[in-house]
Amino acid sequence: MKILVDANVPAAETCFAALGEVVRLPGREIDAASLRDIDALVVRSITRVDETLLAEASRLRFVGTCTIGTDHVDTRLLAERGITFASAPGCNAEAVVDYVLISLLTLAERQGWRLAERRVGVVGAGNVGGRLLARLSAMGIDCLACDPPRVEAESVEAERAGRVDAEEEAPAGFVNLDTLIDECDVLCLHTPLVRQGPHATHHLLDAERIAALAPGSLLLNAGRGDCVDGQALRARLSGEGDFSAILDVFENEPGVDASLADLAEVATPHIAGYSLDGKLRGTHQITRALCRAFGLPCRMTLEELLPTPPLRSLELGEGLEQEEALRLAMRAVYDPRRDHDSLRRASRRQGMARGFDACRADYPLRREFATLEVALAEEDRHLATLMAGAGFRVRRRLE
Ligand SMILES: NC(=O)c1ccc[n+]([C@@H]2O[C@H](COP(=O)([O-])OP(=O)(O)OC[C@H]3O[C@@H](n4cnc5c(N)ncnc54)[C@H](O)[C@@H]3O)[C@@H](O)[C@H]2O)c1
Ligand SMILES: O=C(O)[C@H](O)[C@H](O)COP(=O)(O)O
């Protein structure tokens, strides 16, 4: 079997070499000709898997994407052709939540407010949004959520189970998008890109909704760029200076609107999910799916793939304000200002499209908050709750 794997998929040789011959190509160079003699294709989000790509893929029996998002894949076409498809749900969700928490705390520090005093609205409460809500709530942050497809699915499920009281009622904390916009200071967008249907998300935040975001509020988008009308967002950000954005995703990547990126407080090149843990989980999930599709045994475990983190333990002393302590621990693992700065530098040097891709291709080692154990004094009970809520392992400091 011949397996073509995107060059940005880590551990591909370790995972796939026992299954067949592994060929590597940068994601944007995978084209119809390169698929001529390929049995299995493993991509990330930058390879559009459509009719044009599959024009000469007569041997192809499997397509896997080591990502959560699937909007780059024509899944209907694959089903019609009898090609097995697999994605990696949830693989980098923890990394995205890490990114959101430290980015919000960074803005709080820069603008002089406390996250604990803000209400956060999460749009899309799936693997990413659901984990974000869980961590924010465990940190005592006031949250609301908006996820009409999930609310609908839960009410259908409740009806099926014969729970009459559940009729059309959204679970506690779930509201519609316009209420969320009215009632929250911070809006975090974690929806997939869906172009059609009753819950389409293309320009879910359109000019009207962007205008309705309250003065002093903040929009963070780590879902897909096309879920927000970029032109309208740029116009709002160029306005009175009463509104901020943290943007990891953009319309038209990698050739994104440089003036929009410049106006964002944090602008990163679609790397919110780029922890090594998240990428390796993706590779591992797709290895298992490929083995299933070809009836092969899969002996590789995720633990075998993950190296020991460079920083395993951090001991905090007394006297730190709580959000300061959180920032310190988070930045010991990951600091999004590094990614913001490298996008700025790379786009100035090479132009936006090449710079954006270069930052992603040469991404430095990043681990997740859960890999760090934070040691605290016994009396720091509240801080221990906050740290554990934020995703760290917490232990009592030895005096
Ligand atoms: N920036 C990054 O690096 C990065 C990393 C991972 C995922 N993502 C993006 O984030 C998206 C979400 O990831 P996930 O793992 O949570 O996916 P998921 O499928 O687990 O959850 C998505 C949630 O969004 C909800 N949703 C769909 N349409 C909606 C709408 N119109 N309004 C509100 N909610 C809606 C769904 O019901 C679901 O609960 C992915 O599809 C991907 O595009 C980006
Ligand atoms: O959908 C996802 O999982 C993310 O958007 C993913 O991290 C994007 O990274 P890429 O596939 O573009 O390397």
TrEMBL record:
Binding site for substrate: 45, 67, 274
Recorded family membership: Belongs to the D-isomer specific 2-hydroxyacid dehydrogenase family. PdxB subfamily.
Domain D-isomer specific 2-hydroxyacid dehydrogenase NAD-binding, chain residue ranges per copy: 109-272
Keywords: Cytoplasm, NAD, Oxidoreductase, Pyridoxine biosynthesis
Source species: Halomonas icarae
Subcellular location: Cytoplasm
The name this protein goes by in its record: Erythronate-4-phosphate dehydrogenase
InterPro entries: D-isomer_2-hydroxyacid_DH, D-isomer_2_OHA_DH_cat_dom, D-isomer_DH_NAD-bd, Erythronate-4-P_DHase, Erythronate-4-P_DHase_dimer, NAD(P)-bd_dom_sf, PdxB_dimer_sf
